[in-house]
Design goal:
The chain has 7 helices and 6 strands, in the order E-E-H-H-H-E-H-H-E-H-E-E-H. The protein has 189 residues and is of the alpha+beta class. The chain folds into 2 domains: 58 residues, Helicase, Ruva Protein, domain 3; 110 residues, Bit1. The chain has a 4-stranded mixed β-sheet with strand order 4-3-6-5, with helices on both faces. The protein has a two-stranded antiparallel ribbon with strand order 1-2.
């Protein structure tokens, strides 16, 4: 890491080179590039996961250039890591969860408004690791107890896994409440 002083302004600013692979991973999570760089620098470039957690916690606490009255929404997808799914299969299952959850949201006025606000603030989506089917069901029960919309994908069984397997849990809601359910899970990598 190389630090450079920027002498173009009255107060010198220190800039740090960020790890380009970590930056790419953060941008893949729909984190704006400047915010991703800021999070990487604040976490000492240790990992994309640490920077992502800082960014999302900062949004939750309204510390990153936001109006404190704004409520942020996000969609989280928890992948059942117990199932032997390839990368393409996981991507397809997360896609099913996103479409299914979004269709569910559009059916009701209250959740349709939530979907509109989510879309207005960048349609944040995060993919996380779940341990197994029981774990996904526990997370779903907690989400439902917090009045968060959920959607569970059950596979048709045509390719890699058995029919009826619970592959992905989708959860949508105010970021603060969603974090109560999934805040301690690891990012899918």
């Amino acid at each position: 890491m190389e630090a450079q002083a920027d002498t173009s302004s009255d107060a010198p600013q220190v800039t740090m080179e960020v790890n380009p692979e970590y930056l790419k991973q953060l941008k893949d999570l729909d984190i704006p590039e400047e915010e991703a760089k800021k999070a990487l620098i604040l976490t000492g470039n240790t990992s994309a996961e640490d920077a992502a957690m800082l960014y999302f916690e900062s949004l939750e606490n309204h510390n990153l250039d936001g109006d404190e009255d704004d409520v942020y929404y996000k969609m989280v997808f928890v992948v059942n890591m117990e199932l032997p799914m390839g990368v393409g299969k996981v991507a397809a299952q997360v896609g099913h969860a996103a479409v299914g959850l979004y269709q569910f949201l559009l059916k009701d006025c209250k959740t349709r408004e939530m979907a509109d606000k989510w879309d207005m603030y960048g349609a944040k989506k995060v993919v996380l690791q779940g341990a197994n089917t029981a774990h996904l069901m526990q997370l779903q029960a907690l989400a439902i107890s917090l009045d968060l919309p959920t959607y569970v994908v059950q596979d048709a069984g045509r390719t890699q896994i058995a029919a009826g397997s619970h592959t992905v849990l989708g959860i949508m809601g105010e970021e603060e409440n969603v974090n109560k359910v999934t805040g301690k899970l690891k990012l899918l990598n």
